[in-house]
Amino acid sequence: MNSKQPAKHPRIPPGQRQVDNFPVLDLGIRPGVTHDNWQLRLFGLVEREVSLGWPQLLALPQVRLRLDFHCVTTWSQLDMDWEGVRARDLVALAAPRPEGRFVTLHSYDGYTTNLPLAALLDDDVLIAHSFADAPLADEHGGPVRLMVPKRYGWKSAKWLRAIEFHAEDRPGYWEVRGYHNDADPWREERYSE
Ligand SMILES: Nc1nc2c(c(=O)[nH]1)N[C@H]1C(S)=C(S)[C@@H](COP(=O)(O)O)O[C@H]1N2
Ligand SMILES: [Mo]
Fold first, then answer.
1. Which ligand 1 atom sits closest to the C-alpha of 140?
2. Which domains does the chain possess?
3. Which of 2, 60, 141, 181 is buried most, with the most CB atoms less than 10 Å from its CB?
4. Which residue's CA lies nearest to atom 9 of ligand 1?
């Protein structure tokens, strides 16, 4: 009999190395958002504009997800324990119009990034408020950030302020500065040509 184990699906994408210290990467602007002044707005091509604060976020179904994080600067961290609300549950409250197939994530530091709506609705995309059983630290985008584990880290907007729905794809802060529009780490979509 063949005693070989089946090849494990690799966890580290090409060109990445594993770390376990959760580096901090951002524009260097700390917007000073707290649980009290944090608000999230869903607007644009939606049936219902939604504005919610901290108590409303906690009133939605809470999930714990173990997620990987791949930064384009080549570090990857595996099995990070996050808690929050599935992005799809929030999006459902706003009921995007059929033509609203793209989103811009807006952050309190002025940062933006873009995704197809379908990517935001994936099972593992989290509006995260806790990491490793503690409130999400300010330096990592607390009180509330997005986590999009299937894309490079720059799609995971920290200090999330708004989700805007539109009909056409609008490149965000790094996407207009030469980063790849799709950011799939398994295809090494780091930079556009
Ligand atoms: N609001 C905001 N979100 C952001 C950024 C930023 O500058 N501002 N940087 C992005 C980049 S380039 C990366 S790699 C990750 C880093 O997240 P971390 O600092 O928690 O490791 O946040 C992303 N989200
Ligand atoms: Mo990054």
1. 20
2. 42-187 (3.90.420.10)
3. 141
4. 26
